[in-house]
Amino acid sequence: MSDLEQLSTLIGDIYDAALDPTLWVGVLENTAHFVGGPAAALFWKDAASKSGDAVYGYGIEPYYQQLYFEKYIKLDPLTIGQFFAEVEEPVSVADLMPYDEFLETRAYREWGRPQGLVDTLNVALDKTATSAAMYCVFRHEQTGLVDDEMRRRMRLIVPHMRRAVLIGRVIDLKTAEAATFADAADGLGAAMFFVDATARIVHANARGHAMLTQGSLLRVVDGKLVPNDESAEQPLNEVYAMAERGDAAVGVKGIAVPLMALDGERHVAHVLPLTSGARRRAGTSYAAAAAVFLQKAALDAPSPQELIAKLYKLTPTELRVLLAIVQVGSVAEAAETLGIAESTTKTHLHRLFSKTGTKRQTDLVKLVAGYASPFAA
Asked: Which CATH number is correct for 3-171, 3.30.300.350, 3.30.450.80, 3.30.465.10, 3.50.30.10?
């Protein structure tokens, strides 16, 4: 199978998993092999509390998976990296810190090295002020560090991974069977519409009908679904038309289209193609090209950590040291928490003093407290 054929099949499988979560482990196996690694995971991280959990994983032994979220997530230098990367941007170890420094960390020495893992390519699929939904593919010592080809392949599938994860979060359906999909749609908290390639409504769930009756966000014109926010109409219509040509044609458009209601309330629309894979059964039943899910938009505020890092131009490692100093106090304890040498911690601490205009560790604690953020676990 050529790379193009493999990618097309993979995209279809990714979208099927949006409706049938039992498919995710197989999808992760195939995406890992396509991108170029022996293991992959979908997980979430909260950098404020240094906690998280794996949603789906492939290729990591259950013992090590549990160990990571119980212990090493608190020591992982890549956790803080989510605040420095844009959504959908692949990030490796070398993007966040000197690789030689990474080899000193406890997270690598005690978790990565015993498994033969030497690098990982992480992508934030969704971000809030404190946490992020992440997708990563690990790199083994047999294949070496993340390279340009791995990044290229990752970028080919990430938009589709993001669309599937966001839609899966909205609908949380347990099956992709057409009849149950339609039945379950009426119980969704989000409004849902089936539309054809011209935006004509062929089915709507109860929330969708209620939204049309209210009329602030959407209206019907000649049987077509039309947003009151004119800026959203063309992007949505484009993705409906592309959905009729299959999963790969949809591409990166229409993943999360923002819409403003007449009353000022913000919403977001997610579009799932229904003309390929297991989803075709649902689409064929209604002569639909796509399913549109609409929900209120969450506040898109930067995290306090991100604000501090950008304001003082801190590197990811400097931010890690800053938060460790705030949490545990002494340089020795911070170094132990981070899993790096005490001398390295002191070097970063002096850079923090210089960048923030402070002279003592207590000044750094006051600076962080000024942002009123619960940094401590």
From this structure: 3.30.450.80
